[in-house]
Amino acid sequence: MEVKATAKGLRGSAQKFRRVVNTVRDKKVAEALVILRFLPTPAARQVAKVVKSAAANAENNFQMSPVDLKISKIYASGGRTQRRFRPRSRGRVSPILKRSTHVTVIVEEV
């Protein structure tokens, strides 16, 4: 049985989150949390929260053992982009794009 957890609107681009997500795909939950703990990127902390949430959903809602859980699917997709503008010389503007990301984790029992 698959159990899902999603975090929406995380600050940061999906490209940066995908680097982190690809390192923990198809790993056991405990092993993935150890890997995420020592990654130097700020996105790793947010991905770790989603992985913990998926494990907690499986344990509390479906009585699955947290030791036997494996990340079967994990992906990061682009969310909303806030558009701002920075004034430049000679009356021009430059865009500022504040990107967000949706991260989805699906775990299953091995």
Describe, in plain words, how this protein is organized in 3D:
The protein is α+β, with helices and mostly antiparallel strands. The protein has a single domain (2-109), classed as Ribosomal Protein L22, Chain A. Helix content is 36%, strand content 42%. The chain is built from 3 helices and 3 strands. The protein has helices spanning 14-24, 29-37, 43-62; strands at 2-11, 69-87, 93-109. Strands 1-3-2 form a 3-stranded antiparallel beta sheet. Helix 2 (29-37) runs antiparallel to helix 3 (43-62). It is elongated and about 65 Å long.
Mean pLDDT, as a whole number? Answer: 97
Shape: elongated
CATH architectural category: Alpha-Beta Complex
Number of domains: 1
What would CATH call the class?
Alpha Beta
- Strands of the largest sheet, in order across it? 1-3-2
Helical segment tally? 3
Examine the coordinates and then state which fold CATH places here, giving the name of the CATH topology.
Ribosomal Protein L22, Chain A
Q: What does the radius of gyration come to?
A: 17 Å
Provide the helix percentage. Answer: 25-40%
Reading the helices and strands in chain order gives: EHHHEE
> Largest sheet at a glance?
3 strands, antiparallel
* Percent in strands: 35-45%
The CATH superfamily is known as: Ribosomal protein L22/L17
Number of strands: 3
- Helix/strand structural class: alpha+beta
Terminal Cα separation, in Å? 10 Å
Model regions low in confidence, pLDDT < 50 over at least 5 residues: none
